[in-house]
Amino acid sequence: MGQFQFEIGFSILLLLLGYFFGRHAEKRHFNSIRQREEEYRDILSIASKVTTAEDSAKPGMLVTGSVVISVDYFKRFLALLRTIFGGRVTSYETLLDRARREAILRMKEEARSLNADRIFNIKLETASISKNAAGNIGSVEVLAYGTAISRVNQGGF
Amino acid sequence: MLISNLEIIPGKEITQHLGLVQGSTVRSKHVGRDLMAGLKNIFGGELVGYTELLQEAREEAVERMKQQAQAVGANAVVNVRFSTSSVTQGAAELFAYGSAVILR
Questions:
Q1: CA spacing 20 to 30 A to B67: which of A1, B28, B96, B102?
Q2: Exposed, middle or buried, B32 (CB in 10 Å: 0-12/13-18/19+)?
């Protein structure tokens, strides 16, 4: 009986740890994402391949940004509950949203260091990196890549 | 060697297509990083070790693709794509592919 109680107690401890630390980390991350999105607003990311007369006639340069983010214990528990009732799994939605935006921001950082202000033909690639025994997604990797090109008479690529 | 994920390179002309070139690598992380990732699975947040690992692996895949392109005499790889797949628990394959061309 003692062992059973210990296991229950341990699970609750993990849930609480996940809830408090995970929530704090997510909030901080979202704040940082919003701030940096504002900062990199002048770099346009374009999903098309066709450059215009405004863009420089130089070949451009491949830029990438990637991030691996893990969901916390509490959210994983919530997602497990969701699979019983069905519906939107908000805990994974926010995870993927964070990961995509972070990857795009890192790509833009690289573009800025190359002095480019347009990124063409953006592709996003998502992969689940680790799964636990129950088959739940532990963490996701998102890769964003595109071709950085600067405007006419701006130097750079 | 120019690596780009556009099909038509601004200001350049493709004079010859040399076919598909590819590079791939399968990487796993060491136990220490695995342990840290286990902790992060409780607290949530970015797994910096994994991000670095995959970044390095991707660079290596691109490097191998470049070598292949050089071997066929290309001076650029266009329309490059990346793909990631987890092969087994704790190992991931990074794959890069594109068309080798001669640009003028």
A1: B28
A2: exposed
Give the domains, in start order, of chain A with CATH numbers.
2-149 (3.30.110.70)
Chain A residues near residue B84 by CB distance under 8 angstroms: 125, 127, 141, 143
- Residues in Cβ contact with A102 at an 8 Å cutoff, skipping those fewer than 6 apart: A29, A33, A65, A67, A69, A142, B46
Instruction: Please indicate whether, in this complex, the C-beta atoms of B12 and A21 are within 8 angstroms of each other.
Output: no
Q: For residue range B7-16, list pLDDT tens digits in order.
A: 888 888 888 8
pLDDT, mean over chain A: 84
Q: Chain A residues with CB inside 8 Å of B42's CB?
A: 14, 17-18, 21, 72-73
Q: What is the pLDDT of residue B61?
A: 93
Residue B94's CATH number = 3.30.110.70
Dihedral in degrees, nearest 10, Cα atoms A47, A48, A54, A57: 110
pLDDT tens by residue, A85-117: 888 888 888 989 999 999 999 999 999 998 888
Determine the residue of chain B that is closest to A121 in CA distance: B6
Domain containing residue B99 = 2-103
Residue A32 C-alpha from the chain's centroid: 12
Number of domains in chain B: 1
Distances (CA, A) of A107 to A49, A65, B8: 17, 4, 21
Beta-carbon separation of A62 and B8 below 8 A: no
